[in-house]
Amino acid sequence: MTRPPHHESEAPRDLVGIGIGPFNLSLAALAHPLAALDAVFYEQRPGFDWHPGLLIDGATIQVPFLADLVTLADPVSRWSFLNYLKAHDRLFPFYFAERFHIQRAEYDAYCRWVSENLPALHFSHQVDSVRWNPERDVFEVDFTRLDADGEAEALGRTYTRNIVLGVGTAPYVPDPLRPLVEAPGAPVIHAADYLDHREAFLAAGHVTVVGSGQSGAEVFLDLLRHRPVGRERLHWISRSEAFAPMEYSKLGLEHFTPDYTRYFHALTEGVRDRLVASQWQLHKGIDAETIAAIHDELYRRTLHGGWPDAVLTPGVHVRTAGRIATTKVEFHLEHVQQDTRSRLTTDAVVLATGYRERPLGRILAGLDPYLRRDSSERPRVDERFRLVLDPPVSGSVFVQNAELHTHGVGAPDLGLAAWRSATILNSLTGMEPYPLPLRTAFTTFGLDERQRVPQARPAPALTPLVD
């Protein structure tokens, strides 16, 4: 491919979005009715999908359906989940189902419906680089348009005044386990790919699940439900000290409010880092319903005597792992509290070892000279979700779900998606197309008067529909 780049337009856009996951899809949906805002979004995949390997039958999202793409910023948006139901003639069945937490597959279908109807989205477009052009006071975004097979078809370039990065997270495999994934033989997969390999795991002689977050619990439950009673042959291990429930108390959930996000951002870097490490149970635990379902299934298998052939052991660290010939995997395990070691041989492994923010280095290499970083060399992000850049750069680069270190545990939470998108759009337009609440939590998170949230604004007077 030697053709020169195709310039979509010499006139700069107001905003270019890179990546189309739920967060940038939320931004695109809320940007859609703002006619004066010229925005476009690029995604290298051929269409929207949301963790397709984990759309296990019956698995639900961990936030209420009100945490859709738009409702918590604009309840009357045409892109709400309720309007999706109405468009598909399913509003009354949903009403009678009385489901506050919807299935993952339904959330995925809703997002795909939005993505297929928004005109500003461009799939099969891989963004290659971003640069600042000081002569024109704009960003240059170079991309490659891909064909149906994912091969390069054409080069392109777009100019824009502002950028928003929503490239999401990628499956994470710890160093001791990487050789298992890279070598052929007995099936070893990340949980993100579970459904693509489910039949092989149901048929495997012995299966080990590593990791005790929500994904690990859902995979273990699915395997348990579909393997023979008394011959389950399952191991579930985790380095966490317990198969712990996610914090889901009413006041605990206030850590996922704009109030807490503002409080967290104002803390010092060292305090923020300690808090993120200690708050894992707010977003990495297992929901109580899934824990109950696992226990119920295990108990059901004791009704005719005996115990299921399933071993659940927390507090276990995988020291090393390797393959025995090409048919089995051997783990060298250490129990931290007991200070004991053992070996575990298994036929198949699901690594429910979580996700990490995708590194931005490749895309932002052209902006590196302008980036301000913290003491750990992470990009600094201001309160309005903008990367802190040197003053010569007049444009803004916003980030979505790449600010855990500056904004706290709410960064990857779907419940804050609409609020963050509205915050970005309000900042971009210099207006307030989406008025946001001044107060969102009963908890006051600090003593500093400057950090206290003012009382909510009074409700506006209603305009009569008829004189």
Give an overview of the whole structure.
It is a single chain. The chain is built from 14 helices and 19 strands. By secondary structure, it is α/β, with parallel strands linked by helices. The protein has a 5-stranded parallel sheet, with helices on one face. Helix 1 (22-31) crosses helix 14 (417-429) and helix 7 packs parallel to helix 11. The model is unreliable at 455-467 (pLDDT under 50).
Please name the defining characteristics of this protein.
467 residues, five-stranded parallel sheet, 21% strand, globular
Short description:
With 467 residues, the chain is of the alpha/beta class. It has helices at residues 22-31, 81-87, 91-97, 104-117, 178-182, 198-203, 214-225, 258-265, 269-278, 280-283, 288-300, 361-364, 404-407, 417-429, and strands at residues 6-7, 15-18, 39-43, 121-123, 125-133, 138-146, 152-160, 162-165, 169-171, 188-190, 207-210, 234-237, 310-313, 316-324, 328-335, 340-346, 348-351, 355-357, 396-399.
